Amino acid sequence: MKKLKANIIFICFVVLMISCTTKLPEIVADVVTETTLHDTDDPAIWVNPKNASKSIVFGTDKNTEGAIYAFDLDGKIIEDKTIRNLKRPNNVDLEYGFQLNDSTKVDVIAFTERERQQIRLFSVPDMKPLDNGGFPVFTDEKGPEANLPMGIALYKSPETDKLYAIVGRKTGPKDKYLYQYHLISDSLGVHSELVRKFGEFSGVKEIEAIAVDDETGIVYYSDEMYCIRKYYAEPLKGDDEIYCFGKEYFKEDIEGIAIAKYQDKGYLIVSNQQAHTFNVFDLKTNAFIKEINLGTIETDGCDVTTAKLGAKFPNGLFVSMNNKKNFFFHDLKKLKLLE
């Protein structure tokens, strides 16, 4: 009996040692933000064109009494740019140079407001609403939770300069899961127009994380328990799936997606949620490159910019949600994408 117990103890020790030695080393965050009131989910980075060191990170606080928090690069909350009194804001995205009228272009953030079944649109950095209270989405859906928006990505067409919002939801059919809306500014203000329904769905869990490469006009989204799906973002290029990849590299949920673009190289950085890591893929070939540990737990959303953000983040910035009501900021060089 003593020998058996000794063997069991030895085996447990070996397993423990293996697990310790195979754990990825943590890349420590440069900044951890102040905490939100409820439940962080998804970030978006606005690069200030006049002074990059004054750039803003927006992040959702996903709750019935939720908010879009604004953080400076030290992770401090900017209260006068934070949007409160929202009903479960889920995901947020940002786009530059939206043609508001004949003479004015503005940068904008868009986010889903799940419990009001709508998306919102605000100008940045003055944080003025442009949507007259919100644009309803999935209005033709009657099934339980099929009209509850979650993920959102903005796409500005390099061909037409039109601005689109691509929206995911809590549940839906196995095809035409995503709705794409044209955001139009005219003499009556800004309004939205449904232009297409597209995108396959495995039928398991949901589709939340969406990201668009404006330059190539490609949209990527996480079919959480199945694969990363890849489509054309330009409506006129059709609704056929380009590729479905990456499933074998994730423990369970495939979550937040960020696109890092350099002059001659691009990367897709995707949250491996239950492994508490991120998987990096080559943007052009979609080949797996590596897995990294940034210290976050159960990451939903993430965002990235390769722009130099002053002395604080001279090599660009990667932002990831952490399940302790905060976000982690990493100088992009620490991810060693170019090595």
TrEMBL record:
PROSITE patterns, per database record: BP_PHYTASE, PROKAR_LIPOPROTEIN
SUPFAM superfamilies recorded: Thermostable phytase (3-phytase) (SSF50956)
Keywords, comma-separated and alphabetical: Signal
Signal peptide: 1-23
Domain BPP: start-end pairs: 17-339
InterPro entries for this protein: 6-blade_b-propeller_TolB-like, B-propeller_Phytase
Protein's UniProt name: Phytase
Originating species: Flavivirga amylovorans
Origin organism lineage: Bacteria, Pseudomonadati, Bacteroidota, Flavobacteriia, Flavobacteriales
